[in-house]
Design brief:
The protein has helices spanning about 25-35, 95-110, 125-130, 175-185, 195-205; strands at about 15-20, 45-55, 60-65, 70-80, 80-90, 95, 120, 135-150, 155-160, 165-175. The chain is of the alpha+beta class. The longest helix has 12 residues, at about 95-110.
């Protein structure tokens, strides 16, 4: 069966991903830039401001809010150290109380559902619920991402500000596990810890007592 042709900046079927976070991936980033085929100008440099909702009791559902829209992805499997995540739900604020009750809060896997007395809730009202819950925390994440494509895998390096703390990230993702593994070998990233955004944020804010990759 022919491989799906990936196009950077466009949606494909669920991908496998390697990503890591740390202080510096300078050598790998230089190799990524040199090995990359030309990519569309729209992905040369991208900026975004997002809010991640992290839960002390959940590592399998990744919730973020960007431009007033909520996106929850759920962990599916790990193959050869590479994680696959699928969309779980998408929502937009104002958001219905039924969606919060039946989909959003169950994804956090916490005890203590907030009392929902209205039919819909604004983003500000939702974030107030998060702040009031002892096992949930809203985290500001600002991203500056630089896109590449190596070995038919969608790649990026980036500067990520987690509640203002700067960390570096590097990644390779594809529907094809072997293409990512070749890319990691070509970039000198074999053996570097694969850390998803959820884990990285928890480490930076102290919810998980573990350092980043470097």
């Amino acid at each position: 069966m022919a491989k799906e042709e990936l196009k950077i900046g466009e949606i494909s079927k669920p991908r496998f991903e390697f990503r890591s976070f740390g202080r510096c991936f300078c050598d790998a980033a230089k190799r990524m830039a040199r090995l990359s085929v030309p990519v569309p100008e729209k992905v040369w440099e991208r900026h975004s401001s997002e809010t991640y909702i992290v839960s002390r009791t959940n590592d399998v559902n990744n919730t973020k809010i960007r431009n007033g829209k909520m996106d929850i992805k759920t962990y599916v499997q790990t193959v050869d150290g590479l994680e696959q995540w699928n969309p779980l739900m998408k929502g937009e604020f104002p958001i219905a109380a039924t969606v919060l009750r039946d989909e959003v809060f169950p994804a956090f896997k916490v005890d203590g559902m907030p009392e929902l007395t209205k039919e819909t809730y604004t983003l500000e009202e939702f974030l107030a619920m998060i702040d009031a819950h002892p096992d949930l925390q809203a985290v500001s994440v600002e991203k500056i991402r630089y896109g590449y494509m190596v070995n038919d895998t969608i790649c990026e390096t980036g500067d990520v500000y987690i509640n203002g703390a700067l960390v570096k990230t590097i990644n390779s993702e594809s529907t094809e596990v072997e293409d990512i593994k070749k890319t990691l070998a070509d970039l000198g990233l074999e053996g570097v810890e694969n850390i998803n955004y959820l884990q990285a944020i928890k480490r930076v804010i102290g919810m998980i007592n573990k350092p980043l990759a470097n």
